[in-house]
Specification:
This protein is mainly β and about 280 residues long. It has one domain. It contains 4 helices and 17 strands. The strands form 2 sheets. Strands 3, 4, 6, 7, 9, 10, 12, 15, 16 and 17 form a 10-stranded mixed β-sheet that branches. It has a 7-stranded mixed β-sheet with strand order 2-1-5-8-11-13-14, with no helix packed on it. A hairpin with a 2-residue loop joins strand 1 and strand 2. Helix 3 packs across helix 4. The protein is globular. The N and C termini lie far apart (about 50 Å).
């Protein structure tokens, strides 16, 4: 029997991955520990290190990647005085799709006196991938945030090129309930041609943003001092208590090199062990 369009749509929906993580951490006796953990679908979170002042959490996607129509949701809370570092077990791969975009929704909440280092490894987009991502951050007035996100359009070492794709990336950052930073990136259609334009990426296929709050000119002085040690391009600015670094490189390897250098300069503490393997 020939399948109808509706039959194909139902089959597609039934095979999509849905995953979620809810994680809250709490400070006590000089240590940060898990207070609440919930895992749904394909997502898991593990805390492999010993008890410490800063808890390290590793997100694992057991689906092995993201396909069109997949939906991932992450809700992370650092309670008062807690210190949390979040990373991923590997780079996240977003595969080609002929149907709906994949979606990732991230909510980060930082209570009074807490700190969060949000340092997932790179997101790699394949040709004709479609991804919508929203990141919402709510900080208390005295909370501290370090946030880094990197996107690579194809793996040059594997001979991959991303000619067409769709990416919509939306960030909103609120401090004390007030919106202090908002940005959105949208690339659709002929991505390779657009990235080749001098005003976009000048031929680069790997980009990253590092955000620090609170941050000022002192925060980014270390980044500017890196100078010619970087393999790609970098720009750093600070305003209204926020520091922001933009990176662009010709491939993922060069971006990883520069991102490690920038994070070491602004973090002032060891990077996730998985980043250094």
């Amino acid at each position: 029997m020939r399948q109808t369009a509706a039959d194909l749509a139902r089959t597609f929906a039934a095979n999509r991955a849905v995953g979620g993580i809810t994680l809250a951490v709490r400070a006590g006796n000089g240590l940060t520990r898990r207070a609440r953990v919930r895992e749904d679908g394909s997502l898991r979170v593990r805390c492999p290190g010993p008890p410490s002042a800063e808890l390290e959490a590793v997100i694992v996607n057991t689906a092995g990647g993201i396909a069109g129509g997949d939906r991932l949701m992450l809700d992370i809370t650092a309670e008062a005085g807690a210190r949390l570092l979040v990373t991923t077990a590997a780079a996240e791969k977003v595969y080609r799709t002929l149907e709906a975009a994949a979606s990732i929704d991230v909510k980060l909440r930082l209570s009074a006196g807490s700190s969060l280092a949000w340092l997932p490894q790179e997101t790699i987009l394949f040709d004709r991938a479609r991804l919508e991502r929203a990141i919402e951050v709510d900080l208390a007035d005295d909370a501290r945030l370090l946030m880094a996100e990197a996107i690579v359009f194809g793996r040059v070492g594997m001979g991959e090129a991303v000619n067409e794709a769709f990416l919509f990336d939306r960030w909103r950052l609120r401090r004390g309930g007030q919106l202090v930073h908002a940005e959105a990136t949208r690339l659709d259609g002929a991505v390779a041609r657009k990235l080749a334009q001098p005003a976009v990426a000048n031929g680069g296929i790997a980009v990253a943003t590092v955000l620090v709050m609170p941050g000022d000119e002192t925060t980014i002085a270390g980044v500017r001092a890196l100078g010619r040690d970087l393999r790609g391009e970098a720009g750093a600015s600070a305003w209204n208590g926020l520091a922001l670094v933009r990176l662009c490189a010709t491939d993922g390897e060069a971006l990883r090199h520069d991102l490690l250098a920038v994070l070491a300069a602004v973090r002032g503490a060891p990077l996730p062990r998985l980043w250094l393997n």
